[in-house]
């Protein structure tokens, strides 16, 4: 009983091969192109990856290729394939719509530069790497945009890998009870954002905003926190926030400017208070930044690596020193870095990164919410901090750790939950809103992308013609519709998502889905097909 | 007696050590990387090294193992990678939550199974009650526990709306031990508890029934009948004797079922230790998963020990050697 | 049974034929109406499993499109899709039918493996006794202290979710109970007079095991294998339901997991009921067979005649 | 040792005295079994274990019920106690003091069992519940029928133990701590608990060694003489019957072969089976006469699925004729005695022949 679905050899391949190009005799050709492994996120990340990989490979197999499906658990995928260099042949996977990825550096540099940690496609192109390093240092936006676009063009010409779709997130909420639930597009509705969290307004006396979610928050110590924007950014203010237009707007800081390429002068908002009533001053900000630089908490390493320290200017102003010029600092670090109350931390003698702030009773920030209760794996409650400059118009927010989609759905129907943003598949959210009057659904198109990676250091992927053919045979449309149930958008060309607005190079010509064209490309490059319709390398 | 208990205890310690060792190496050879989540967010190589060191994941496997054992002997199971605090601090409330559905569920399941099993075992051989009893028990035994959970939720929550659909309580600020004694808690407890009972009962019923059937033809039952005591009393004698083999099965089964309750916890969104174990495994939180696993294994070992001792209490014929 | 007991002579000399032992087992089971129902269901399931690729109307993972070119999601049963479609637009009937294969594949292969290992360990331990027995039984003790489902979860997460690994994990988990049971059966057989005669007559250990011990414990092995099929099916279903199933194939547990994780569990009844009912039918029918068999072979449980 | 009564004088002991008085006032029972048939119905047909058996136990007398194993003796006892398994077909009457007790439900039997009819079971080895102390089991019997305190019932149990010659302290022990003989005595003590008018002793000594057997039988005889209860003693040991019972019923293959006063039946058996049985048991040699050889009856009891159509003993009877094989003999009375044999008139001739071993041996080789 061999499992037939494991190998996807499209039965269509043969007749197409026969009719289009006839088939060459084996002696005219090289070796058969071996089976290709497709790694993708296993079902623990949801069935979209499986479905997408299946749909995409179904089309690719029309080029005479055979595929082996290789589901990989998320963590294994990340450690082995994304940063571990363990990509065998191909991978179909997604990268999330984190708020700081509105900056092009992640897309251009982190995923593509020589030696970048997340360059799992093993592509190394020196001139390109030079360009993407440089763009990051250009504090002048115009210059930076121009260089970023140039890099995109270069990338497009080489085509080492490509995005297939952009993810559409969604949120569903109880519109009987809540209004002004705004979309955080193009960022997924991560907690800690203004939209929809802080803008939501209650329509009834139930003034607690219940978020029906999957898992627990694991810590209230921001130095130990893993997420980019996590829940605890509700408690601890950041200097800036990214809004739904992709702009970085003032938050705890009212203004910032590069006084030098490596020095940013930051002015704090006036009259801010911590939850215990103490005033927020530049001392607290400077203390926090210097502490972070000193301790180098591993969880924060990606964003603080370029920080050199901070120094106070006056009560509300201070300078942040960078190690190297970094234009992405504004979008990636300011909405991330937080302010700790110096008076609760300065005298702490233990390991600050490991401090159990809940047990110590020092979950004290200056954010729009105050910590109230945490029942492990069950519920978190944050109370509105009325003195905050952007306090929401309701009394508090709850995060229900329900652990499974079905319960999230039930919570939304029964009214226990007011909003659901993730975990529940977007299609299911949309279905829910169609079925229940009190529920409203909003799509959140994002820059999160499903990428098709090729092992650029291994044949046949070393051959530009082969890559081109694979690109042409990539059915973005099918992946979006069948893999993502329509809740994805076929991605544009180049590494940078279209949603990044000005950073996106819209001049790159769209490559249409074209199997016949792809076969022609292969044929012209000397490839051929045997009598079984299998693709063979050109004869050497 | 004392020598026997000591010997059994020594054996138990050996078994626990072996299981701990197996688990340790299993988690260490996992291909997954506990830093993966951070890596995706751009954890630097030095920071990763630092983290691994902090988590006791550097050095040779053997060194790690020795350190791990030494810590366990001091009752230190390490800090949860994710929660950043001692695993027991994380697990303790979850264990209590699990016990809330497990203990009453299993006890009621066992009691109900014993009573119904006696009834079916005492029914006329080949009669309707016996046949229906056996058939239903066998079929219910074949229902996977998540199907039980889904069915209960669909019928009693979604359709009839009698019980809440998830969780252990309404969202709110009730914390501490007092919350366990609220009507709201009991309301939430009902369905998962029923699920555990339904899950655990049939096997008890069938075992009890076999025991009663075996015992009812024994000579002593005839004498009890001849004494003219009420039928229920006669059945009690058969049941009382059938309980002996049931006990040896029951205790390990209790422990095993507690371990199996993870599925029920997930279906009902019950914040228990089993659900946390699944989360911990999927998030590579080794210390947490290892401690949860250790706990379950110890429970099974202790249950076996308890079964031995209780058997001795119930059966006057047993002499400990 | 009575015949076998009353003619001790030939048994002592020839031992029992395997075939007759197995045949007798089957006859015993067929005598019970519940077990007969169980066997019928099992047989029907096997037939469906074999025919699944031929009778399922679509490829199990093929996305169904509507005439307007949209994905045909969550359609209730129609004439084109007798059991409706999933939230991914897959045909439920086709997935359901393919599920028979996986359930039986996992169940049967794992059970045979479990039966083999349990028998080897149980026979060696019970027959030879002494240190071998001690060591094997301590190993069994240790194995018995491993919590089943948590171990399966960890092990599958470790090895990766594939049908082969799931079978392997199930085998690792269930040999232990079987070894215990078979060992005690062997202990009883070992003390029989004809075994002692055979030994006195110079038969080798291997001969004694093959001719005298094994045929007489076939019923115990048979029972354990039957139950193991049920355990294996249940374990696979639980793992798949937890999202640890092999994503490249369709199993019932996985169908339920997809329904569960997409939040359609309580609405898409056409998607949820078939795999649930099939699981219950398969496992229950195995239990019915096992129970009847136990009842027929345990003289104390038989209806007194 | 009798500390229960010693510790708690006063109310408890008066309760005990009252109980004892109440029980002592019970008369011995009169049992008439008429046309009792017991059949087990199973897939292959009906297994007629007991077929048309009648006998009578007069108050205060002791009836011996003898025969080989499988002759239906125990079935008769079980039928009287209502202990037959499910699906048993019973017909006939068992009149206890004139009231029929056959076919009563368990509930109805509650008023009869142990109150009026008590049982001394066959295998004392297994007939005590292993998980209760002996005392508890006796107390259970008493308190199920008499509304007395636990202490009183226990005190009564101590008295009963004294009666069977066991120290009261052993009431606290469990069956597995007793030897076979002690268990049997405990069972006897239990049977006496309510001083039932009718005692049914079902092979009370079978499982014991000969010395213990005679001790137990002596104990039973003593108790019988002392308490004058009516009693049926089931045994395959004809010597026991001779020593113990006023009347004897010999059963063969589910039917009464012969019955009558023990002396008559054993001295002048009318049925060849009785003669054969007599031969099969050792007797003390009578001075002056040649030592009697032990002669066993060749063959086995016929399969009761297919009982022979004539006399059931015909197949093993050295005197059987064509008629014996074809016509079932009726029970024919001769004085106090009765036997189911066509040739009662030739009984003395048979007795003569039956005492010679070759008579049976010839039979054995013929079979």
UniProtKB/TrEMBL annotation, chain A:
Gene Ontology biological process terms from the UniProt entry: peptide transport
The keyword Transport belongs to this UniProt entry's keyword annotation: yes
Whether Transport counts among this entry's keywords is: yes
Name the CDD domains on file.
Answer: PBP2_NikA_DppA_OppA_like
- Taking every annotated instance into account, which residue ranges of this chain make up the domain Solute-binding protein family? 248-534
Indicate the secretion signal residues: 1-26
Arranged from A to Z, the UniProt key words for this protein are: Signal, Transport
Q: Quote one Gene Ontology molecular function term.
A: peptide transmembrane transporter activity
Major localisation = periplasm
According to its UniProt record, where is this protein located?
Answer: Periplasm
SUPFAM superfamilies per record: Periplasmic binding protein-like II (SSF53850)
Q: Which InterPro entries match?
A: SBP_5 (IPR039424), SBP_5_CS (IPR023765), SBP_5_dom (IPR000914)
Say which family it is in: Belongs to the bacterial solute-binding protein 5 family.
Entry protein name: Solute-binding protein family 5 domain-containing protein
Question: What is the protein's species of origin?
Answer: Nitratireductor aestuarii
What is this organism's lineage?
A: Bacteria, Pseudomonadati, Pseudomonadota, Alphaproteobacteria, Hyphomicrobiales
From TrEMBL, chain B:
Topology term for the membrane: Multi-pass membrane protein
Subcellular location(s) of the protein: Cell membrane
Q: Please provide, in alphabetical order, the Gene Ontology terms of the cellular component aspect for this entry.
A: plasma membrane
Does the record's keyword annotation contain Nucleotide-binding? no
A single GO BP term for this record reads: transmembrane transport
**Alphabetic keyword roster:** Cell membrane, Membrane, Transmembrane, Transmembrane helix, Transport
Q: Give yes or no: UniProt keyword Transport.
A: yes
Q: Which PROSITE patterns match?
A: ABC_TM1
ABC transmembrane type-1 domain spans which residues?
A: 95-307
Instruction: List residues traversing the bilayer.
Output: 12-30, 99-122, 134-157, 177-200, 246-268, 288-311
Family from the record: Belongs to the binding-protein-dependent transport system permease family.
Please report the name of this protein according to its UniProt entry. Peptide ABC transporter permease
Q: Which organism is it from?
A: Nitratireductor aestuarii
TrEMBL record, chain C:
Q: What is its main location?
A: membrane
Stretches that traverse the bilayer: 34-55, 102-129, 149-175, 220-242, 268-290
Family annotation (Pfam families) = BPD_transp_1, OppC_N
SUPFAM superfamilies documented for this protein:
MetI-like
Where does the ABC transmembrane type-1 domain lie? Answer: 104-290
Membrane topology, record value: Multi-pass membrane protein
Q: Which GO terms describe its biological process?
A: peptide transport; protein transport; transmembrane transport
Q: Which UniProt keywords apply?
A: Cell membrane, Membrane, Peptide transport, Protein transport, Transmembrane, Transmembrane helix, Transport
Show which residues constitute the signal peptide. none
Q: Tell whether Cell membrane is among the UniProt keywords.
A: yes
Q: Name one GO cellular component term.
A: plasma membrane
Kindly list the places in or outside the cell where this protein is found, as annotated in its UniProt entry: Cell membrane
- Tell me its family: Belongs to the binding-protein-dependent transport system permease family.
What is the recorded name of this protein? Peptide ABC transporter permease
* Organism, as annotated: Nitratireductor aestuarii
UniProtKB/TrEMBL annotation, chain D:
GO CC terms in record: plasma membrane
Q: Tell me the Pfam families matching this sequence.
A: ABC_tran, oligo_HPY
Q: Which domain of life is it from?
A: Bacteria
Similarity comment: family membership: Belongs to the ABC transporter superfamily.
Membrane topology of the entry:
Peripheral membrane protein
The places in or outside the cell where this protein is found are: Cell inner membrane
**What organism does this protein naturally occur in?**
Nitratireductor aestuarii
- Name-wise, this protein is Dipeptide/oligopeptide/nickel ABC transporter ATP-binding protein
Upper classification of the source organism reads: Bacteria, Pseudomonadati, Pseudomonadota, Alphaproteobacteria, Hyphomicrobiales
Q: Where in this chain does the record put each ABC transporter domain?
A: 31-278
An example molecular function term from Gene Ontology annotations: ATP binding
Annotated GO biological process: peptide transport; transmembrane transport
Record CDD domains = ABC_NikE_OppD_transporters
The entry's keywords: ATP-binding, Cell membrane, Membrane, Nucleotide-binding, Transport
